[in-house]
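Treating backbone geometry as a discrete language has practical consequences that deserve illustration. Part of our work consisted of pairing the sequence of a single chain with a tokenised description of its backbone. We regard such an encoding as a compact summary of how the chain folds. The amino acid sequence and the backbone structure tokens for this protein are reproduced below.
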Amino acid sequence: MKITDGTGAGDTPLSAFDAALFNAGIANYNLVHLSSIIPPGYEPRIEKLNWNGADDAGSRLYVVIASQTEIEHGKEAWAGLGWVLTEDQSLGLFVEHTGHSEQEVRDQIDYSLKSMILYRKQKFGEIKRHITGIICQGKPVCALVAAPYKVEPW
């Protein structure tokens, strides 16, 4: 499983989100948002995608995604995914967090995952994360991190 990220600016928050999707390489899909369980056999790895020119435009893209927009000049938009796998890789957990600083997102990822593993019986490995951000310079901006699972036609 690949983890990609993107940032972008646009005339509206929605067009900034689309620009960030394009920068992440996943702009031409209908997004189906997934929750926070990583199935067995999936191991996240950070890799910038370039699926924008694919022949399957308009298809469903099953994805875990965190995105943050900002419209105020000088303010920051940050987004991140965090994950942790069991030692035997039979289960994994994803969390999606957003905020106005890298540290805020990092802290929320760590707090969430540490809390989520407390009541599970499995032994988990190291918490990992991927975070990106952008500063608003006048036009709306968006930062996003996404973990696309699968593309499926209609």
